[in-house]
Structures are given as C-alpha cells and as structure tokens.
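Record format v2
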Amino acid sequence: MSDCKEEPRAPRSTWISQVKTPADAGAIGATVTANIDGQDVKVPMGTTILEAAVKLGIRIPTLCNHADLCVAGVCRVCVVDVEGQRTLQVACAYPIAQPIKVRTHTAKVRNARRHVIDLILSDHYGECYCCARNNNCELQSLAKEYGVDFYRFGHPDKAKYEVDRSSYAVLRDMNKCVLCRRCVRTCIDLQEVGVLEVAHRSHKSKVETFMDKPLGEVICINCGQCINRCPTGALRANDPTYEVWAAIDDPTKHVVIQTAPSPRSAIGECFGLPPGTPMTYQMNTALRYCGFDKVFDTNFTADLTILEEGTELLLRLKKALVDGDKSVKLPQFTSCSPGWVKYIEHFHPDMLDHLSTAKSPQQMFGTLIKTYYAKLNNIDPANIVSVAVMPCSAKKFECNRPEMTSSGYKDVDFGLTCRETAQMISEAGIHLPDIPKSDFDDPFGTATGSGVIFGATGGVMESALRTVIELVTGKKVEQFYDHADIVPIRGFDGVRYAEIQIPDVGPVPDLLKRYFNDWNWLKGATVKVGVCHGTANAKRVLENIRAGGKFAECHFIEFMACPGGCLGGGGQPIPTSPEIRKARANAIYSEDSAYKVRKSHDNPAIWDIYNKFLTDGPCGHISHKLLHTHYTARGKYIIVV
Amino acid sequence: MNSSIKNALTFSTVEPSGGLRAAMDKGRAEIIAEVRASGIRGRGGAGFPTSVKWNLAAAAKSDRKFVVCNADEGEPGTFKDRVILSEYAGLVFDGMTIAAYAIGATTGILYLRAEYTYLREHLEKVLAERRAKGLLGQGVCGKDDFELDIQIRMGAGAYICGEETALIESMEGQRGEPRNRPPFPVDTGFTGRPTAVNNVETLAWVACIFARGADWFKSVGTGKSAGLKLFSVSGDCKAPGVYEFPMGITVASLLEAVGGQDAKAVQIGGASGYCVPAGEFTRTIAYEDIATGGSIIVIGRERDMLKVAENFMEFFADESCGQCTPCRLGNGKLLEGIHLLQQGRCSMQYLRELCSLGETMQLASKCGLGQSSPNALLSIVKHFQSEIMGRIPAAAAAARE
Amino acid sequence: MLITDRERLRDDIAGWAGRYGRERSSLLPILQEIQKKYRRVSDHAMQIVADLLGIHPIEVYGVASFYSFLSLTRQGKYVIRLCRTISCDMAGKESVAQQLRNDLGIGFGQTTPDGMFTLEWANCLGMCDQGPAMLVNDKVYTQVTPQQVNDIIEQCRRAVSVFATHNKEH
C-alpha cells in the first residue's frame, strides 16, 4: 500500500519507545544470547527482555504493557535485575543488543515490584467486590500474585474525582485509574482519535479529555477500545442492565433481544472457555431463561443491509457512470460501524455524502421489530422493549441518536455489550457452556453466512460482493471464488484493496427491475474495493482519497472503527490481543462455512419481507423511511464554556 | 543582582575563541582524543565521560546530528550555569562549536530554562556577534567543510527537562517526560537523530582544555575526577556564591573557604544529592566519593533537618513528571512520612518501610529524578535519626504549656 | 469571545506557526508566544494550534498543562513568582510570602480581581546565593525583604498608570 503512506508525524509513544536495533548495520538480523534466570535463549538483536523471557516460558508480571500498543515502560512492575546495571531495568522496554544476564526474581526485584503494587494500591480508590472488573482485573491479579494482604502505604477512603457518566458508551472512574496510559496509547496512537491524554504532571497527573470536559461532550467516537485495554475498572461501558431487568420484570412489556454475530464467538470467554468457542445456540437458551420473550438474530438485518447497501451502490454507480451525474459521491462507504460513523462526522464532515444511508443492522432490526413484527403479532409497539446484544460500546450511542426513531418509537431501547450480557446470564444462575442449544425465533430466524461474517473485518465487503456479483452476473460466486470465499479481502492487514472483474453480465433480477433495464454498462468493468479497520487506518484511507490516491478510484470501501472489526469491538470480553481476535475470527468464518445459505440475497426471509412489507423493494420509498438514515456534520471543535 | 563570583575563575583568564581556534587546527578524531586525555566528565552531576559521549555520537550514522547545551539548570542550590552564561557565554559557544565539529553536527541548540529568560537577549547578542565574526555559519573559522548554527530554545518551567531525554522530548514539543533508555540520545536523540547533550559548564571547560591543553586539565583534581569545577554555594555561610575548586577538595576545606565551618551538615548535589553530616567533612567531592553537579547548601547548627527534608520532598513531589509509579507516588509517600515525623506520629517500623521504599525508588524509577529524589531523606534519616525521631506533636506540646 | 478577537488570535497563531514552522517541535515556542501576548493558553488557542500543526488538541492540552510557565487560565499583567526552594526558604522567603499576600490581598495561585497581579510559587530560581529571590515577569529581584515588597508592587502599578496617562494625552 505504498501510495497510502503518511509519515510526517510519528505517533508519540511509538516514537519515544521505539526499540531500535543497534546503529551498526552489520548487526541487523544478527542474534544475541540472553541468559535469563540461568537459561540461555538466542534472540534477534533488539528483542526485549520480556519477549525473550516469554520464549523461555519465564513469567515477568506486567501492567502498562499491552500486545496491541507501543511500549511505555511507566508502571515499573516488570523490573528485572540486569547484570552490570546499577538500577533495575524494565523488561518490556529493554532491547537486548549484547549478551546479557538477567535475573527476574531477586530480593531487590521482588521488593521493588511489591512496592510498586503497594504504591498503586495507595492511590486506587474502591473495593474489589463492588467493581465491574472483579475477578478480571490486572491490578487485582498482581496484588494476589505478590501476596498483598494489607495496605502498606494506606488506601484512599474517599473518592477524589466524580465518576463521568456523561457518555452513553464509556463510563470513566478516574479514582481507579493507575496511569498505565494504555487508554491514551489506544486513543492517540492505535485509533488516532485523540480524546484521552495525560494532563498536568507529578501526582496531579490525570488522564483527561480536552480541558477535562465530560466525555459525552468531546469528540469521543465511543469505540470503547480504551475499555478493552484498561487493566482496572477505571473505564467501563455505560451499563443499562438494571433497566433491562426492570423491563423483563414488567409483565406489560414484551422484551425482545437481537444478537449480533461477534458476541457469540466471544461470550464463552466470560465463562472460562478459550477464545473462538462459538456459543450461538447456548446463548439463545440462556437469554430466554433470563426472561426475554423473543431472541432474534441480527444477521437477518445484516442480510437486509447488504440488499439495501448493495442496491444503493449499484444506483450510485449507474448515476455516475451512465447518467454522468457529478453530484454522486464515490466511493461509497459502509455505515454499519457506529464508531466509524461518529468518527467521520467529527473528523471528515465534508465526506458524509460518501456514507451509505443504510442504517446499521442493529437499527434496521429495531425499526422492523416495532413496525413489521409488532403488526404481525398484534403487539402495541409502545409495549415492546427492544434490546440488542452487541460487541460494541458505540451501539449504545447509536440507539440513542435522536434520528433513530423511524418506527415512531425509540427503535432500539438498549444496547448491551457482550460482557453485560454474560453478566445477566450469570446473574440468572446459568453457566453458559452447560446448557442446551436452541434456535432463534421466527419470523427473522433464518440468516445466512454472509450475515455472520459481518463480525470480522472485511465481512461486510465480502457479503456485499457475493450478492452484487450474483445479482449482476447471474452466475454463482463459486465460479469465481472457491467455496464463495473471497479470500483477497480477508485477513487482518489494516488496509486492504482488491479488484473484482465483471467479465459478463446476466439479466436484471426482478427485485431491481424498477431501477435497471440491463447491466450492459457494467460489462467488463472492474469493481475496486477497499477494506480497513481501526480508525487510524480509516484516517489514512480518507487522506489517500483526498489526495486522489488509489482509494479515490474505489467504488466501495468498508470501514470498521475497531481493530479486527466487530469481533474486536469495545463491548467484547476483556482482555483482547491479536491472537484472541484471530481465534474469534476463525470461529466466525467456520460458522459461515457451516451455513447452507451463505449469500444475503438467497435468504428466503429477506424475499418474504420485501414481498410483504417493504413492498417497493430495496432503496424504495418504504425502506428509505424505515431503513435509511442521515448524518450530522459534527466537526471536531470542542466548545469550552 | 550582585556578582556571584567569589574567587578567581579560570574562565576569566581564557581568551574567548582561543580554545576554539586551537581545536579547529585538529582533526575530528584528534579532538575527541584530546577530550579523552583531559579526563573531563559531565559537569551536570552524572559524571559521564564527555569523550565517550562524543565518540558514540560521532560514530552514529545519520543525515543530521545535533549538539545540545543543557542550560536547564534547576537543581536546588545550583546557579553556576547562570553565572557562566552571563559572563562567559563565549566559552560555552566555543565548546558547543568544538563538540559539533567533533561529532559532525550542523545544528546546535541551547535549551535555556524559562526562569533565565532575562539572559536570552544577551545570549542572542553573543550569537549574532559570532555569526558576524565567522565563528558560526558556513565555514566556521574558515573551515569549508564545517557549517554550524546555534539557536536558543526556551524551556517552560519544568525541572525534569534537565534530564537529557526529557529535554529532547520538550524540544520536540512534547510533555517533558523522560524516554526509555536505551536507545540513548547519542544514537536516537532530537527528532530521532544522534544528539550530544552537554552541560553548560562542561562545554565551557572543553573550550579551556583546548586553550590550555589536556595535560593542564588532567594535572588538576584526582585520578578519576580530573580538572576544576565550579561550585554554587548557598545557605548558612559567610560568603555564598560561585567558587572554583579543583575536584577532590574536601568538604572541610570548601567550608573554610566559604565561611561555613560551623555547619551541622552540608547538602551536596542539591535536592537530589546527599546530606553530609559534620562528622564526614573529611570526605572529598569527586566522582569516586561524593559526586555533584556543584550545588553546596550549607546547613547551620540551628536548622531543623526535617524542615530541610520536607523542602526537598515538596520540590520533587511537584517536579516529578508523573510518568512512572515509584516517582509519581513514592515522593508523595515520603513527604507524608516526613509530616508524620514532624507530628511525632511515625513508628520505627513505618520509617524503615519508607526507607525501603526510598531504595526501591532509587532502583526502579525511570529516570534520574526518581532515582535520586530519596537520597536527601535517606541520608538525613541515617545521620540525624536522634534529631528527627521522638518529636512531640504540636498540640500535645501546647496543652502542656 | 468576539469574532474579531478570534480572528486576531488565529492570525497571530498563524504568524507564529509560519515563523517557527508547522511541525510538532514548534509547539512550545508557539505556546510561549501565545502565553506572552494573551497571558494564557486558551482552549480556543489550543485548538487553532492543533489544527495548524496537524496534531490533536488533546496533545496540545497535555503539553500546556505540563509546564508551569504556561497557564490555562488568564494570568495577571504581572506574574510574581517567589522562590520557595531551600536556600530562599532558609533566607526567609516565608515573611516575603506573607507580605506579598498582605499587599496583594490574594494567596498563592491566585490573580488579583483587577487582573494586574498573579502570585505563584516557583521552584529554585537559581539565585540561591542572593535569596529570597523572585521573578516579576522576566525580571529577577534578589535579597527581597518584606519592606521592599510594596515598592516592587507599586513600581509595577506605576508603570501601567504612566502608560495609561501617556495614552490619554495623545
């Protein structure tokens, strides 16, 4: 991706902590022997002590270190004794450039680690048993590992800061912050959104928003990536389970829940299962047991999204290529990731016309439940409480957008994260892996593999291509791609680009006849698509488009706010790492393979709804009213009163 | 403002740009060899051999290199750099120019602390004169292959920026937070390029070394601590000010020269240094015994050592960058401990725990600030335990009266 | 803030960015110019700087809040910084501090209601041999006695009022 390079400004912490191989060019590629606790290991020059120790299976505790983030070296938990050095060195940031001897648990080291933990505890307000991260807290584990049984340097007895509950998505309790700066590195370096940074200095240092404004009033995109990387309970999602339980307990309410594909591949982690263990059908049973009246599959509206978004793309292409309409914006951008949508609203508001107007699957489902489903089952939509299980914290914001009321009601009442769902399930006394499986409820029960892969980066694009290729060529995707796996756009590369040839065209399907007479204008065309995940990559792609680079030539680009796509979303189980996300992706793709129907337009329930309800077809008048939305140019200026 | 200079300084006997011209007659390697032969070590306090630093910077390959003069003098009790910059700026720029030539730098930066803003005008004037004289710019001293300009960058009020990597961060427009080392600035410094950061005094001495010869410098001082050193003397003595003494001088003879013989203790090396009690005044000031950047604070008989310790800890608690745990929180805990001692409410066990914490800070902090901030308290606890323990809480004392 | 004030601020910052270069390493010099002219680095100024340098406003905020010579709130025309470090402490800074409080009617960290003076503590000013020392803006005062405090303050006031009369006459 050479023409999409942008490197005038190195993100700060990759810069300060770059672990460089020695200047001696001859040494690059050379290996060096490290002796750690008496064991030798050969490692490439520049390997850190921590990485070398991992190779030997030696555990060095860490706190500020994170697999997704650049090195900080600030918590000082991972100190080790390096022979010949007067002071202790941090294993996470010390590059091995010559043979060294390291000892990882001398008296000095143990004492120092214990002191560091004691100091953090002396500044960490709150009790473990009333914390969202109880039993899944890195500070708690460290305290246990080092046998902390009293507060050596005291413990705060009152809160210093008010908890910031201003955001629908992320709740910040800075009393629990340990200043590991993972959230800062996530926000500035990994996501390049720039909402959180350390302000002030000395003991007054605090992770703050701009001018310490409430999070809900700054340019946070709600991606929740900071939550996933926070080692303690300082950052968490804004949790509506209390309200959801209240709705369940209210006999006048009909409470339905839709479940997105990503949480299924991950919720098992909350119950001790290894990442990538699908729990789709156990979760259905568990949610019914919790008291939800109906359990639906968001994949259904994922398929619907493909039809709507795909048709919108074909319409844009026709307007631009055949009618010569200059006002049509291409490439078209996907709009299912609410973090991404808020990102572009803040940072590139002049490019909003590129966004597909199709709502996200969550919101489409919400609308259909309070219109189509309510009518079908003769339920007053006022009495329906619609809940969504999402891998996402931004979905909590999305369902609260004022425009998301096409049904005449709040389309989706509550967004639950995967973690909160697991919490509800365990509160109901269920150990998820132990319960029987059951299917989704009708009338939306049927879904396709295409809907499932929405959960992985590139999934929306692959689903859309499967459908567009078949609708346009009249041939099976399998004739072009083995097993309909469009491999060129899979994977975890931050930015991906692919060209899809349309050698031949077929007849226009009935569904689209109102818009197109024939496909001849697409014959021999090359459809250029892009995929990117993580807003830092999104930024690069948008800048490339502005500069007239390769991505400006694209027709369709998938954007996901979170690294890895939804499976790495801010509502997924903690912790996260590249390996964990890979395992979740494998689960998602194997679930896709197992589906008999793997293309959105082959979903019979989709035909059903277009026949019975959305009778003027994709992008028709009814669908525009119910399934499409508009965006707000927010800009990034922060008003400080 | 009175003159701070109290005894005859070598700097006033060395002809401005004399050392520079002598150095320019030598090759780059020869210059570094001469610096090595002089045995000079960093005068900022850490005492890293200047020639080693230059050698590493000279060996590093890069399109551009920098030489930085660290004029962020902020150590409590230190003011010699202010005097050097006001009176002998020419020598400092001579030293920077020699350093730049030796390592192959084309840009020199003097990082001046915000508290010394009033010196800036004078320094800019000196630089302008040097440009006019051909001592800066294209072909310095008539050497066609040597181009150098020196700029002044202002600090903005942060003691930590005296730490060389924090100083570089600050020049890059960042919070002044020290970096992980390695990599070192000589390899990866300002904007990622090789950078030699030297103290004001070191650079001035380098100019003198080339004017007088390495042998002259080496002949003064001790084996491991060559040469002369400026001392900033303040506190309870008759004649506070800047003094020049050879390295290896005993504390006692220094006190005699400044009129502080009656002292109960001397804080050597500023807030981050050591508190030396009267019983140890025979010790020497040298890298092999008590190393210092030159801050000498004389503490008189009637001073309360806990108040001294409190003042130092307040300083660090405010000036810590707040990045690493031991320093951000440790300084506060030590300060709390001092308050407990003042109130007569500190158990012996807790005092031991605090001292152990102090040792952890020395070992596990990220940079020199946290590694040295407990020094003063630890040495005061060690030498003045009878004075600081067993205080009667003020309220109890008042009630008895 | 009036639109004309905003424009003036933007023009000023653009000028400084032009002089120092639109790169991250110019951040401190630009912030120092803003501080000098406007006596504070406002939220608005920080966002303009961020825009011009292509960085996040939060990064500018992180930097501006780090350094003690940059202020987020508006400082007085004269910023008085009294050294509180050991040698000045031993030389009697506390009685100078008390006199400053009395004569200005404010505490440390505060600004007089007329916007004339801000009183702050400073860490070691490098005048240890001539303490107590204090800075009034960039000017240094040494061996300050409580009796001199009022004179120094009056000098500042007079400097302003003379200037004001001067303006009126022309």
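The mean pLDDT of chain B is 95.
Chain B touches chain A at residues 59-61, 158, 160, 169, 174-175, 177, 179-180, 182-183, 187-188, 192, 317-326, 328-333, 353, 356-357, 359-360, 362-366, 371 (CB under 8 Å).
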